[in-house]
Amino acid sequence: MPGFEVFGDEEKKEVMSVFDTGVLFRYEFAEQRRGIYKVREFEERFAAYCGAKYAQAVTSGTAALKVAMAALGIGPGDEVITQGFTFVATWEAIFAAGAVPVFTEIDDTLNMDPADLAKKITSKTKLIIPVHMLGSAARIEAIKAVGAKHGIPVLEDTAQAPGASINGKKMGSFGVCGTFSFDPVKTMTTGEGGMIITDDEDLWRNMSEYHDHGHDHAEKPGGRGADGRRFIGFNYRMMELQGAIGLAQLAKLDDIIAAQKKNKAKMRAVVSRLAGVTFRKQLDETGDSATFLAFLLPTAKQAVKVNKTLAENGAGAVYFAANSWHYYPEWEHLLASSTVAKNGWPFKTPVGKRRVIYAPDLLPQSAKILDRTLVYQVPVILSDERLAQITAAVEAV
Asked: How far apart are alpha carbons 389 and 252 in whole angstroms?
């Protein structure tokens, strides 16, 4: 973790084939590009890898969420439920769609708690977004069952878990659609970029058109100038260079995960020496993408103390309870309703009426879990020196 650890000749070869055509745009220029359509090929191969019928490439994982929600018809007046342990992009995209984010607790998987999800459903709930955080699966079948009971679709945020699976079925392929991120620190990367997968042809078509200003992409004389438009859209197009890198990275994904599994096993064996340590719940150990090693100490005080010693010995872990990017109580701009919009949107209506207020103590169950949790990123390439450093730090504890 991440994919840039294994950048090599494969990525260079794919990128150079794009430069040789001189075409960086994913559409048009058929004669000049000589049959080379990297983004389209990347979409087809990624869909096949995930066991999905369709894939839509976009500019980022955040854009993937936005485009998917637009295609699903999410808008003002709607509520979208997600979890309080996720990257800020999940709820930013919900706001960007005009909807209101509603947050659930996490459970021992460090992902959405289906029991709390059931309590958060209202007449305004139009979508559920579980997040497969830190490379491991949420209780997706139980989450889907809650959604099905109320007729609410499930969109999987799989930004941190490409290649993860349950019983051989890839994460992202359980819900009506699944979104992925290929930013600089993801398991596979295109620098920036994202993808949405689905089995629903109509949904894919809506995404295809929305992400490109509404262009219908139908084959006709006149090219893009003759495109029809069923609705307005925006520009979230991936360019050919990103598609080229994605092809090379996707070909390495299974090897990346295999390497991470070996390295995670070594790191876990070391961390297991800590008194009282336990590990996050894995629904399918063989399907874990092994991107992160999450371990829990008996109390929050112990977690802080242990991490202090680990850090002093050059092997500090991530303490997400104090992380401002991924954890609800640390999202100061959300809690303070901070926005650049002069009318207070999205926290207020255009006429100044308050839409939503977020209390800092909203998720006590999540706090009890994350206050005790430490996390190591698992590298694709783990040197003997780094493993020895982690081992020495644990011994110091």
From this structure: 28
